[in-house]
């Protein structure tokens, strides 16, 4: 899959600048491999009845786009990005399993579900954003919920500043700023998307 003709670093810069076409291109390019990984890991028939690989794939990409938009990742190679996306997919699939097999919701205890009931439950679940415009809205909401300092860090990261430079500008340890910022993105992201 790792097509070296794709300039991942440029696509990520475009995504940070809010260009939906770059997000769509990246999604189309990596979606088949992410879905294959998710389907491979969704072995339980009971879980597959209520969790769709497309839902998890969209959650993977939304999570990735939010983090890229917030300046979290530095990726230049297609293979490096693929490995990151597959890791996120594995984690989200594991989270979906844990959620569905929890005692209060254990899907293994469900005796039977007809197709109409499954469709009704899917429609009733929280919808995952499916296009780049909605992802941009999510990024905007993420930024709205950042503190003033966290927003400043996000702005500097989008402008291409490295953590060392941000630390110098803000008069703090780059590592402390990076960790605090990543925790904030994780915290807010979980409120915006399922399985963040």
TrEMBL record:
Classification lineage: Bacteria, Pseudomonadati, Planctomycetota, Planctomycetia, Pirellulales
GO terms assigned for molecular function: DNA binding; sigma factor activity
Residue span, RNA polymerase sigma-70 ECF-like HTH domain: 7-190
Pfam families documented for this protein: Sigma70_ECF (PF07638)
Coiled coil: 125-159
Family, similarity comment: Belongs to the sigma-70 factor family. ECF subfamily.
UniProt cross-references to InterPro entries, sorted A to Z: HTH_Sigma70_ECF-like (IPR053812), RNA_pol_sigma-70-like (IPR039425), RNA_pol_sigma-70_dom (IPR014284), RNA_pol_sigma_r2 (IPR013325), RNA_pol_sigma_r3/r4-like (IPR013324), WH-like_DNA-bd_sf (IPR036388)
Organism: Blastopirellula sediminis
Protein name: Sigma-70 family RNA polymerase sigma factor
């Amino acid at each position: 899959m790792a097509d070296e003709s794709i300039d991942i670093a440029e696509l990520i810069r475009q995504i940070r600048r809010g260009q939906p076409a770059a997000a769509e291109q990246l999604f189309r390019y990596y979606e088949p491999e992410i879905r294959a990984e998710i389907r491979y890991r969704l072995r339980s028939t009971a879980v597959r009845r209520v969790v769709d690989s497309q839902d998890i794939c969209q959650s993977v990409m939304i999570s990735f786009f939010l983090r890229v938009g917030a300046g979290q990742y530095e990726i230049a190679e297609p293979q490096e990005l693929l490995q990151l996306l597959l890791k996120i997919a594995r984690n989200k699939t594991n989270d979906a399993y844990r959620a569905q097999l929890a005692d209060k919701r254990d899907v293994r205890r469900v005796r039977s579900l007809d197709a109409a009931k499954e469709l009704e439950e899917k429609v009733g679940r929280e919808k995952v954003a499916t296009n780049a415009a909605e992802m941009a809205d999510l990024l905007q909401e993420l930024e709205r919920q950042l503190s003033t300092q966290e927003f400043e860090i996000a702005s500097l990261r989008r402008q291409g500043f490295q953590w060392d430079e941000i630390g110098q500008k803000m008069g703090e340890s780059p590592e402390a700023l990076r960790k605090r910022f990543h925790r904030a993105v994780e915290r807010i992201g979980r409120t915006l998307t399922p399985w963040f």
